[in-house]
Amino acid sequence: MKLAELWASPKYGKVITRKILLIITFTILLIFGLFNTQTLLNVFFTILNAATPFLSGIFVAYILNVIVKAFEEHVFSFLNRKAYKWWIRIRRPFCIFLSILVLAGLFTMFLWFIVPELIHSLSTLADHVPGYVASITKWVNETLAYYNITSEQINFLQIDWSSLITQATQITSDFLGNIYNMTVSVASVLFTFSMSMIFSFYMLGRKERLMRGMRSILYGFLPAHRARRIIELSAISNRIFSSFVAGQMTESLIIGFLFYIGTTALQLPYAMLISCFVGMLSLIPMVGFYVGVAIGCIILVMVNPIYVVYFIIFTLIEQQVEGNLIYPRVVGTSIGLPGIWVLFSVLVFGGLFGIMGILLGIPSMSVVYTLFNQNLTNRLKARHITDDVINEPVDVDSLLKKDTGSPLKKLSLHLRRKRLHRAKQQEARTREAEKQMEELDHKAQQESEAAQEGPPETDKEE
Fold first, then answer.
1. Looking at the whole model, is its pTM more than 0.90?
2. Is-contact 327 311, C-beta < 8 A?
3. What angle do CA 135, 277, 263 make, to 5 degrees?
4. Which tens digits make up the pLDDT trace of 36-71?
5. Of 106, 132, 125, nearest in space to 279 by CA
6. b vs e for 91-117, b when ≥16 Cβ sit within 10 Å of the residue's Cβ?
7. Could you tell me the sign of the dihedral formed by the alpha carbons of 297, 299, 302, 307, in that order?
8. Environment class of residue 276 by beta-carbon count within 10 Å: exposed (0-12), middle (13-18) or buried (19+)?
9. Nearest to 182 by CA among 115, 270, 256
10. Angle at 308 (CA atoms; ends 119, 359), nearest 5 degrees
11. Which residues contact 405 (CB under 8 A, 6 or more apart)?
């Protein structure tokens, strides 16, 4: 059948028209975007700035929802089983209020206890950097003298210590200045923060109604199976993201607390500063913890190199405790992503989008991995492929004994079989297409014959 006849057919005409319109629209938008990139970026950032309170409210509501669910489903589960009417009425507002108290308490503790200690530690570290560098220089010289290493043997290690001290002092001063600027800039976003909190409270209080409204929109404008699939994907994503957020935050708090107890018990200097670095960087799976430990080692080696040995020994002990007791119970398989894909997410998304890319890329990759596994499982079930078939070993010796020809002859035979198989598949597809075209031709011929017969006899007599 010709393209014009296929386009005019009621079965394929609308589909072809819709696809052509989509291609034309996409092409026009792509050309417009390529020639107006800066304008589109300006519009995007303007909309993003205007929607900052809304997006921040969604983020805060998502974090608070983890705490609210913990109160509703675990802390006060005994009241849920009783099904008291008064509890059903006040359950959500009361749990939101308790969640706010928890966050406010943590924030207050951070401001009153941790921030002053951090500022004091950073100031002390900045003041003592020249002395620490001088101590390291003296220790290196004594070590070289002990092993009879002359200056001629280490000419390639000549270092301008005065320049290094100046740069280290300048970097520390700049870092303290950046902390001050960040503290001052917090005051300029109080309004946005307040609006975000109000919006997040509204979302938490009416999340069931909001979810019902979103489901109604999906079922109202999309086919039922597509709407259901979107809801399932959203549920999977929510489960993975919430588990990741709750698990990583809890693990980071526990690690920071353990490091503070350990470094304080060992009487290591800058215990609070090192513990905060290790705890906060532990939010980044796999690599964040080791980066925090490396920063702690750098700080301690400037004070006394022997402290690094104590710190590393404590880190190894803490890793055993965390790996065997804490991680399986707190985080477990919350994201369901193998370690190789976690590392891939950290490297790729971190390189593209920075810290936020790392934090959001890992659960996003977990969602993709989960959906891919579901699709793969369904395909294997449809083809009746079991684990025995997948794990069936290949007996190479028996295969080589069957074919006594040369390797080139075996390869030629294999390629010939593949060509024959592809030819049979192509022939089957061609026959199916010809059959469909014949049916369409026959249907079109019947329609044309019916049109040529003219009106009924009664109409002619009239």
1. no
2. no
3. 65
4. 888 888 888 888 777 777 888 888 888 788 788 888
5. 106
6. bbeebbebbbeeeeeeeeeeeeebeeb
7. negative
8. buried
9. 115
10. 60
11. 413
